[in-house]
Amino acid sequence: MAVTDFFAGEIATELLKNLVKICRKSVLCKRTAEQLVTSIDDLLPIIQEIKYTGVELPPPRQRHLDALSETLVGGRDLARKVSNSGRWNVYKNLQLARKMEKLEKKVSGFLNGPLQAYILADVHHLRFDTAEKFDRIENSTRRLEQRLGAVNIGVGREGTGWYEEAVRRAEEEERCEGSLVNLGVGMDVAKRKVKEMVIGKDDFRVVGICGIGGSGKTTLAREICRDDEVRSYFNNRVFFLTVSQSPNVEQLRSKIWGMILGNNSVDSIDTIPPCTLQYDFRIVVKTLVILDDVWSIPVLEQLIVKIPGCKTLVVSRFKFTPPVINCTYELELLRENEAVALFCHAAFGQNAIPSGSNEKLIKQVVDECKGLPLALKVIGALLRDKPEMFWTSAKSRLSRSQPICESHEIHLLERMRLSIDCLPEKVRECFLDLGSFPEDKKIPLDVLINIWVDLHDIEEEDAFAILVELAEKNLLTPVKDARYGDIYSSYYDISVYQHDVLRDLAIYLSNRENVNQRRRLLMPRRETGIPKEWERNIDKPFNAQIVSVHTGEMREMDWFSMEFPKAEVLILNFSSSEYFLPPFIDNMPKLKALVLINYSTSNAVLRNLSVFTNLSNLRSLWFEKISVPQLPETTLPLKNLRKISLVLCKINTSFDDSVVDLPHLFPYLSELTMDHCVDLTELPPSICKMNKLESLSVTNCHSLRELPTDLGKLNSLKILRTYACPSLRRLPPGICSLVWLHYLDISQCVNLASLPEGIGGLKSLEKIDMRECPQIRNLPKSAAWLRSLRRVICDEEVSWLWREVERSVPGLCVQVAEECFNLDWLAE
Q: Which is more confidently placed, 570 or 127?
């Protein structure tokens, strides 16, 4: 399939390029128009041949080719009209010229977008087919199964493709500062030494980087990952994986296996036997696997790949010795001049001490940071724009922070504690809350904001301001997103990241009190059950306001009876396909926020649903990768519940009107989010009776076919998001009755045919996002009645329609979105 499509795509590309050139001249010469007809007649059979060669194309590719065929047929008719048009009919010729320009743009869009992606995908398939010398995928799978212990290799139901992996890797690289600039000559030397081990020593199969937390290990490893010479040596087969203290080893091994085979979508239900990664392939393909944040030898031994040409770079706080690792580079702390440069960059925005500053004081503060890059950045950010007296006080407090234990880790935490002690009380408490989330995981911004709002009695806008302040002080890092900070941004698909040393600091500061008196009861890493320290103290109530549990599968017998009279937030992080909810939820009378996040590869089935029967104070509920359960009939109406978020969940029939009365169960719900719920085909009609609902987000739900007819009855609705729902073909006319709607997001609804004729009835509408809606080619006349509309985001093809509306609506700004072609089909 790949070879046929590739060469057919090449032929189509050349012919289409000629077609575009002819289009540009067609309005000037009838002879050119006649040539255009001939070219299209020659081209259409080739497209039909691509479509009907007996090879089944992915549905998105089939749709693109069908649309191109229709466009070319229309172009042929248009060219004939040009040929038959009188020379002196100026008005008609002008109309035809505009249509020809539109045809050219459409064909060019296909040339520069999907067609390029088709070729890229085919080259990707062709490269691996040729390299591994397999004639057919079925044969290759069968041979591998026989030789590797009947392992099923293929595209997983929930897997992601190489393109998504590349995007994820790029996002992670942007997330981390990851640059050796400002880290000095020492880091350059370190990079050179590590490169010598990686590409200069063929007999070294496993090499390492070690150093204390915050010393720049991950930064150095990421530099190696994107170094041009390294990537060239390994033919761009360089992969970066974070292991962490509590890894899912089977999941990581599956991912490595997928990378080695050039298939990052190994089925999640397959269990790779221990011998798989030890198999000695005869085909040598150079590959570099970088394992970051490795904590133990047993885990490392399961992840090391023993295949000719494959090398592993291990990044750890510990120095692992031979025979596990051939050679390890010990990362040294920064020298004085390097430390000063990095500190000054954080404190003054330049790489040297500013003239006129107190150089002695600055160097004293730098000296107290002991050459640790992370400490230098955090303390530097803390002291930025502060008066000299504040610097003097900081220096004194730093010098007194030497603990009895001389451990480098404790030493670092004690020194960095200053940056937290100097924060305003609310900001400090919000920072300490970050220790509630697992290491090396992105923290959903929506969850974080909800917790801060419920726990610290602040408004959502103030919570976001605290987030920005923590980011400015290098205490957390927002993952870059175009919507970050927008007034209508959807927080549920934006996240933040925290360095593991800063997380250690939050836990370290939270755990100083007796376990029963702590405000936050946290588990530093994933364990098989409840920590022994908790178990030994269950005879007394726990006064924690936040309880965070991180385990694998939990059964009824794994829990203990515990009292939490003050608990307001419960975060359950786990990794399993089945999970028994803790009985002690019944002993949390003040519980306001319940968060369940499943890190397994399959959706979890929840047990012990009786805990939901009396959560009278619950205000927010977050389910991630859960099979949404049917609540017991004895469940009382949750009158205080304001927000429900279902991410990557299976809805099943839990919301059917025959199963649950949503308006009765959630009478005051104001925000409902369903994201990436793949089995959701329609919303229950009863949702239209939830009169308090202000925000409805149904996004990335690829099976959603329609919205309820009576959606207009949601008379309190202010925000409606239905983006990236490709099966949605129409919006119900009833939405035109949403007189309080402020924001409408229908972006990436690629099959949405039109906007409702009565859209002008949305009198309060301020913003529309309709980028990547290629089927919408006209606007209703009533669009000119949208007097409150201030911003429209759309594609260039329809922007001129909105420009006409712009004349009728004062203050309207039309923003043309960057072209971004949908490449979801690459995952197939």
A: 570
